[in-house]
Amino acid sequence: MSWFKREPSTQTDETDQNRTVRTEGLWLKCDGCREIIWKKELAASHNVCGKCGYHFYVDVRARLALLFDDGIWEERDADLVSTDPLKFVDTRTYRARLDSTVRATSLRDALVAASGRLAGREVEICAMEAKFIGGSMGAVTGEKITRAIERSMERRAPLIIVSASGGARMQEGAVSLMQMAKISAALMRLDEERIPYISVLTNPTTGGVTASFAMLGDLNIAEPGALIGFAGPRVIEQTIRQKLPEGFQRSEFLLKHGMLDAVVPRAQMTSFIAKALDFLSGPAQRAAA
Ligand SMILES: [Zn+2]
After folding, report:
1. pTM
2. How far is the centre of ligand 1, averaged over its atoms, from the C-alpha of 221 (Å)?
């Protein structure tokens, strides 16, 4: 019995290097337990390691498919794109960075807003893509979330935001920082309307996103082992001149210290949210057939 399977190849060059390259596509080493796992097995379990429960990243589309009934949703405001308000240039222009990211991800922003049903209930869900310029929050992210909140109020449908973000988008400077206030103000109106908002924090949720909407949920729940914080551990250690405790800024530590309401494995996330919404706003009103 072999741990590795070789796929038929049309190539004639049979060096060891080529063999390595081909098997790499089928297996990967778990970041949690260092065991070798079959990629197909991982995909079948929503990218959670079957051996140790380590939660690998899932992209924004897989995330939405997981939450919405039958994986069906209607995307909202998909046409919004950043105008590069500061004409920002770092190692390359922000415009060029945006263009290549749009091509690589087939997304126009780090956040996808969508309407649909979760366990039969009408909901608005926003989810972030960490691979879109670090899942950073710019003006488009702020506008999309604000519009989702307004739709939530119009339709009296609960709001769920799944964060995966490095924080505010540096290339939009103060404009991106203003989104924190804009979204927070809109969430306050949602709260006054007594419509539930559930924040789901995934790995990683940091910076301005943690400092605003990610921590403002009626319930703030996280996936296991997610990095959640404002500043990174190195910056904090240098500032307070103290060694930080083990597991600092991970979901389980934050739950233990009262910063989160629950840590929920990915496979149970949808049913957990459904139960929470039943609790917060009464059983779902199913649409007439
Ligand atoms: Zn593992």
Report:
1. 0.89
2. 22
